[in-house]
Amino acid sequence: MTRVFITGLGAVSHAARTVPELVSRLYDPKAPEVVAPDLGDMNIPTKRFALMADEDRPAAPETVAGFATSESMRAILVAAREALADAGHEDDDSLRIGVVLGSSNGDAALVEQYRTRGEQLSEQGWVPMFAAAPAVASELGTTGPALSLSNACAGSGYAIAIGAQLIESGEADVVIAGGYETFSRVALAVFNQVGAVSQGTCLPFSRDRDGTTLGEAAAAVVLERADLAAGRDCRIYGEIAGQGWSCDAFHVTGLDPEGGQLIRAMRTSMAEAGVTPGDLSMVVPHGTGTRNNDSVEAAATAVALAPHAARIPFYSSKALLGHTAGASGTLSVIAAVTFLGRGVMPPNLLIDEVDPEVGLMLPMRETPLAGDTAMVNTYGFGGNNMSLIVKKVDRESL
Fold this sequence. Notes:
By secondary structure, the protein is α+β, with helices and mostly antiparallel strands.
């Protein structure tokens, strides 16, 4: 089977403007600044969102391929450019480079502006969900497949899995895969409506968790056919070794309390990668900080990774980055390959005491990692579940 390597990373968020800055924040974590956005007369109980600072907001053309570039599209353009440059594929028209992007709300903010202030959406008068990937492809000059996905908060996990399969099937040589999410009034209202917004700070798997904090981010990875990467001078961050897809088909927002499809996704990803729970060096869970979701995820993980679940170190990124929805899966993959590459996992942030019912190990100090394999889990509304296995690659062995 064709192997798929990760050769480029890109990210922008409220916590960092580039991947090197993000990695610095991961290893020297400080609580994120969460501000109350200007919502006018919007009547919701909790007005908290981890916003990018005005001076850090990405600049981009006002229109791309005839569509207005919202905050979200500008952010994913910046992340995709960083990843492509990191991989050394800028201005490369010799390869079939695809683009696969996931998002929960897409350009919802543009629609909200139109509804509240009557601002024009684009030359066509609308911004369809499918515009994101073709617009990014147009701006970057890529000519491979371009796919825009939703799949809620699992969107960019699915984007990476589909990107890898495009390469494995021979439809593309290289794929820019990722996701994006920026401030949306509707998203914040929805999370308030279902009682999922924290009154303080997002504390995944903590005894004191009370909900999540939504955050702005865009992230991308460059996936590349292994023989191409091995034959040129580039950094190989890791390999997409296994994928596990499943759907609860249980509830529009809630997880199936039995967690059966989460277990299926994790087991499928390990089987495809040819690894067992005992081979895992670490896990980056979904971990939203909501009481029910964290409990269901932890219970399912304990079954899927038995008998090793309690001894595998977990790193939960949402205490630092917030819940970045469509971008969260890619940010988790970036974290996983970075930690495997360094051989050290940074401390989990802000969690004073792990919920004893959770039963997972979330170290509060830097933790050496044994081995070369990590699991990344990302789940979303609608019961969309994706589990990925990423592995460190030893270039000398290629």
